[in-house]
Every structure is written in C-alpha cells, then in structure tokens.
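Can't paste images in this forum, so I'm doing it all in text. The chain is below; anyone willing to post the predicted structure tokens underneath?
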Amino acid sequence: MHRVIRVLPALISLYSISLSAQNLVPNPGFEYYNNCPTDRSQVVYSPGYDSFPSVRDWVSPIDATTPDYYNVCGTSPSVTVPFNTLNGSRQPHGGSAYAGIAMFTGLPHHHELDDYREYLQTKLVSPLLPGHTYYISFFVNQVYHVPQDFNIISVDRIGLLLSDNKVDTSIDYTHKMLAIAGQPQVLSTAGSFFTDTSKWYKIHAVYKAVGGERWLTIGRFADSFPIACRLLYSPVGALDSIHSTAYMYVDDVCVLDMENAQKHDTTIYSSSFPMTLAATSVSGEYYWHNAGRDSTQLIQFPGTYIREAWGDCGYFVDTIRVIKESVKECLWLPNAFTPNGDGLNDAFGPVHHCFTGFFFYEFSVYNRWGQRIFDTDDPEKQWDGRWKGRLQDANTYFYMLQYTLTAQPGYSTANSGSNDLHVVKGDFELLR
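Text version of the structure:
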C-alpha cells in the first residue's frame, strides 16, 4: 500500500499495517478451554497430544509435573481470575485467563537434593519455514502471595524452546531432578529478575528458523548450579534452610513470520525542514534504520526513512520517503488529513502563506455523492471531518475554493489580480 501526503512542516503521524500472517501459536492467551478449571494441576502430560481436560492445545511435557490453568470461569477459588486463594490477585495480560508454572522449586544452591520444574508445551499451527525470520514473545508475571511456609524467589533465564520433535519426558520423581535440557531460542537476560510482582514482563526475540520447528516449550531449562535468584520473601529469613519456589503466570504467547509483513510505503511532501515523524500505529519497541529507537524521529533533510516496530504480538513496518516541495503559490492545500484528535493534521482546508486578505472567499467540501458537507466564508476555518456531528468515513472527498483578493502590498489593484475570481478544485483523502 502506498500513500502520498502533502503537509506543512509539523509532527507527522504514521499509521502502519501489521503482519497479515496469523499467530502460529494455537490458543496463545489460554482463552479457549474444554472445561472450566475446577482445581489446580489441570494442564496434564499427554504424550499423544490428545488430552486437554481444561485449557485447549496446551500440555505438560513431563509426566511428573502438572502446570495450572486459571480462568474467570474457574469453579474453585484456587483457580479463579483475577483472585485465587494460593497465589493472590493478578489480572491477565489480555483476555480472561492465563497459565501458571513453577520455574523452579527446591534448594537453589543444592541441586542434588531437589530440583522441580514445570513446563508448558503446544504444537504450532504449522512448522517454521527455513530461512524465515520470526518474531517470538510471551509474557510472565512473578507470583508473590504471603504468608507462605516456603521461600518465594525470582529466577532469571526464563526460556522458550522451539523443536522439530515433541519434548516428551517420563521421569521418576524419586530422582528429584525434573529440569529439561535444551538451548532455548528465546531467553530472558541472565541476571535480570522479575521482581515487580504487579507487572507483566515481555520476553521476546527475533529468530531465524532452521526449518521444521513445530513444538514450543516454555520454562526454565537445565543449567548449572547454584541457581541465580532473588529472595522476595522468607518465613525464616534464610535461602537454603527451606524450599524456595519461583512460580510465574504465563500469558499471550506469540510466533509471527516477519517475512509476511505488508510493505506500507508513504511519500510525504514538505515545504521546509526540520520535521518530526511520529509512529502512532502501535505501542512497543521501535527501530529506525537511519538511527534511533524512539517512537518519533526528527528529520533534518529529505530522504528515505524505514521504521520497524514490535508490539505485544505484532510486527509493523513503514517506509517513508520525504521529499522537499517548494511552495510556489501563496495558497496551498494538502491532499490528506487525519482527524483523530491528536492535534496533528486534524482539519482540512487551504493554507495561505502570503495573502493579506480576501475580498471574497468560499470554501466547500463534497462527498463522493456530490453532497456539500462543509461550507465556510472564513479563511481561518477548516473542515474537522464531521458532517451533522458525525465523523465521516475514511474515503476520498472533493473541495472547491473560490476567492478574490484585496489589494496586496507592493502591487497595484490591477496587477494583484484582486478583481479576478479564482476557482480551485481537487480531491483529498480522509485517513484514519
């Protein structure tokens, strides 16, 4: 898609188009279920990937562990949302449900005594394609609810593993070692702990696929001891004297193929510089190829500017070509505006740069059916995109401007053309 916009030097809002591809994670927000949860431990081990007693499409890859499912429809106070009796209160990152797993339970400095971990696993809608780049993310929230009879800790290196084959582990828990070995492609930073228990943290990465990856597993994978952690609460004031647990909620898992991004090109004509480009299509992280990671970019010169943005589960891209256009006439009209209430390009109408006055002035706007939906004889008044109090749809509209000028400074009445009726017609776009 390509847009052409003529504007006065200002802050220009850019609206981009997200990936057309679907999220490859089935039931990414844990919203869909076969039965409302009645208790904890209802995400089960299913070697055939065919048993989903509560939440759909998610299983445990270890037969000795039982992740938990929480939903507003839960029939027991231990698994309701937002409040549950064991882990306190937490609103979902999105929707009305989430899952919960023990990232680690045991003695962090003595793995030979105990090491219990839980994982969540699902099968992607389709395998990853070789050489394609994917945007992958998920959200976690550290659970903190006291009093408890064990330590509450936060751990680092929370990961997401993509594999060709299903990770499937049958372990006798009498060995007390339940960590899955693997090298997750998405991994939170070592030494970074999720200690703000009121916040959902996003863990994300861009990954170039080998090809064939079909299974997705989330958890804290096997690593060396001692386990790096932060002590959040202890009933005894010591780390290794009793068991410690790092339990987290998981929500909104995302795998998107970045190769399927729609190219969204914009050409902006501006009469002077500097000007500011503002990315308003998505809240998240930004990357301008020319430099900078802010949502806005100050443009000093004409040129081509490419912006990428990552949202909760979306990848956005916009290529902006900025061209300097000389203002050859004193009267100038843009060819698009965005009446979205952000204070930028919210109204449409003529802009006069050097006229000192009009003897006669009439500006009208028409819709595509020829209805006149705006009319004014005030040169300072512009159309706000409304007709009969209702904001009009994004579409093409038409204008007609008629005017005669008063005598202009430095010119005789005859030379200024003040007695001539000027008629200017054209079309423009209302953008959302």
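The CA atoms of residues 305 and 388 lie 39 Å apart. The radius of gyration is 30 Å.
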